[in-house]
Design a protein that fits this description.
This protein has 10 helices and 6 strands; from the N terminus they run βαβααβααβαβααβαα. The chain is an alpha/beta fold and about 220 residues long. The protein has a single domain (about 1-175), classed as Rossmann fold. Strand 4, helix 6 and strand 5 form a beta-alpha-beta unit. Helix 3 runs antiparallel to helix 10. The longest helix has 14 residues, at about 15-25. It is globular, with a radius of gyration of 18 Å. It starts with a strand and ends in an 11-residue tail after the last helix. The structure holds adenosine-5'-triphosphate. The site of adenosine-5'-triphosphate has 18 residues, from helix 1, strand 4, helix 6 and helix 9. It is an enzyme of class 2 (transferase). Its EC number is 2.7.7.18.
Length: about 220
């Protein structure tokens, strides 16, 4: 079973890393692939470049064999659509290998606005991780899909290559990349919210307005 967990990772933090390990444990897989996405240029102004986000991810997972990085969306020119990425992965994995995409409830709530969303269940399973915030609208497409395609346990995902939706409710750390960027810009330390290696590199490169000579 191949599991991908996408995000902007601007920067990667312990909330992401902890969730990726929880997913790996709960689905019983050896590895989860973290897949950083392309950020449109207008967002890049305040955040880090693709190369910088990738470098921070590499440092964050350096000692963790359960996590790996799939940088295909960064190396592709321009925006990446999830359906294209899943199609490419499906071609590589062949028709029978289960492929799983992990998304938060916040992202899944807008699923029917994703490009070619109708194709996605034919390419992969979806694991929806419950995040605090509004519930799915009961009369919306995402809630209907969830009801129609619901898997009751991770073993069901192993029995077919795609098409099921599994809800997981793992413990989540209350950390956001937005909060970390704001903290650094204010001259406050994000220590213990991100791995030390990540914070060192952020300071070394002066990312997010960090002062290279400031306090650890
Ligand atoms: P931002 O604050 O810039 O929006 P973020 O911290 O929410 O960033 P993203 O990189 O956008 O992180 O998120 C990637 C994925 O990780 C999304 O599916 C999101 O729901 C999830 N995620 C983000 N923060 C956490 C957290 N603290 N715990 C678990 N999952 C998280």
């Amino acid at each position: 079973m191949h599991v991908i967990y996408g995000g902007t990772f601007d920067p990667v933090h312990h909330g992401h890393l902890r969730l990726a390990l929880e997913i790996s444990d709960r689905l019983g897989v050896d590895q989860v692939s973290l897949m950083p996405c392309h950020i449109p240029p207008h967002r890049g102004d305040t955040g880090a470049s693709s190369g910088q986000r990738l470098r921070l991810l590499e440092l964050a997972i350096a000692d963790e064999p359960q996590l790996r990085i799939d940088d295909r969306e960064l190396t592709r020119a321009g925006a990446s659509y999830t359906a294209d990425t899943l199609r490419q992965l499906r071609n590589e994995l062949g028709p029978d290998e289960p492929l799983v995409m992990v998304v938060g409830t916040d992202a899944f709530a807008g699923f029917d606005r994703w490009r070619e969303w109708q194709q996605i269940p034919d390419l992969a399973h979806i694991v929806v991780v419950r995040r605090p915030g509004p519930e799915l609208a009961s009369d919306g497409v995402p809630a209907r899909l969830l009801a129609e395609r619901s898997a009751h346990d991770p073993d069901a995902l192993r029995a077919q290559p795609c098409g099921l939706i599994l809800e997981l409710d793992p413990p989540l750390l209350d950390i956001s990349a937005t909060g970390i960027r704001g903290r650094i810009a204010d001259g406050r330390s994000p220590r213990y919210l991100v791995p030390d290696s990540v914070w060192l590199e952020i300071r070394r490169q002066g990312l997010y307005g960090a002062c290279p000579a400031g306090n650890f």
